[in-house]
Queue: 4 jobs
Job 1
Amino acid sequence: MEDPDNPPEVWAHKKLTYELDRFFTAGPAGFKRAARQFGIMIPDQVNAGIGSSLRTAKSSIGILYPDHFLDGDEADVEIAGARILSFAAFSGR
């Protein structure tokens, strides 16, 4: 984070914190499945879709949880001076 005394606003749908908690409590198995999804295990000679490779620290994962929430299927908010119209696109759960 650039300035810990002035953190950025982090916007998300209100259900995201539940999903993040569920993911991070899944332990190593959940992380390994997510790593496969983004091609982390593909050899360096192959573009994984996010550049040549993705490196992660072995000790920890950093995350800023949302502090502003969108509720319902759509929201019309102003973020950093821009009008944002957001629509929920859930996977069916």
Note: The beta strands are 11-13, 68-70, 74-79, 82-87.
Job 2
Amino acid sequence: MRGLAVGGGLLALVIGVAIIGYLAFGSKSPGGGSTPGIVETSLQARTYAGAEVALAQVRSRIQQHQAMNGRYPAALDELTKSAPLPALPAGMAYAYDPATGAVEAR
């Protein structure tokens, strides 16, 4: 009887570890798709938040430039005379449209 209880407890432990692993790290499906886990989703959220903070700062500087000069900067380099642009997360770059003053991270 005791062996059955130990075996059942061990099975519950193995299932619990498998569930935690799935939630934390996601899964790969046979068709090549994947389900992101908590760790991956958390990293994506942090990257997105970092980009949004940097973009908000750059957008503010673009609006200040437009208010002071009556036009949007021709290039983002015009905004770097007093201070560099905020750094974007690795692998991202600014995309700027001088006609509209719109900027985004790609």
Note: The mean pLDDT is 79.
Job 3
Amino acid sequence: MEIIWSQRAVRQLEAITCCIACDAPQRATVFVDRIIHATTQLARHPNSGKKMRQLSPLRQLVIQKYRIVYRVRKTVEIIAVLGPRQQRGR
């Protein structure tokens, strides 16, 4: 199954990576590698993420303290990458 990243998700991943890289460039590289690896696995196991709500089509993967929000249709669409600050109040 094909993985498609929304522009929003790409921007969010870039912003999170830049924040991490300010303090620890190597940690930022490892973080991106983990996110890419996890989303690549969705091509073979698209329903492996936890459903966000009972009737919602959205699913999520949690990598460390970050959430990858996606939906499965004919493709897997990565909708958002949320850091801990973005998750408050959700």
Note: The chain has one domain: 3-87.
Job 4
Amino acid sequence: MAGSLEVLYVTYGLCVGFGINLILSADCTIIPQYFNKKLPLASGIALSGVALGQLVFAPVDEFLVNKYGLNGAFLVLAAITLHAIPLGKDSMYQSPMPITGDQCGVLSL
């Protein structure tokens, strides 16, 4: 348990920031493999899903905390998150098109 509110904010911020970084870096490597002509549109839709997910989960979090308490809410959210792992795993091992180094702001040397 966190000893103070500041420690909770920093820890939560680091964990969420790290998680979102993993999602965004996966988006920048997986989406160009599937979309060539409409890459900006596909990237915009995928990246807006991250923000939409945060908006949707705010009331879900509140409902879970009210219904199950803080510990129960974290357990339910962990279960939801763990169910997303197989979906991400399946997309990591498919490579339909080669990726060039200049996509997603990465410069090839």
Note: The mean pLDDT is 77.
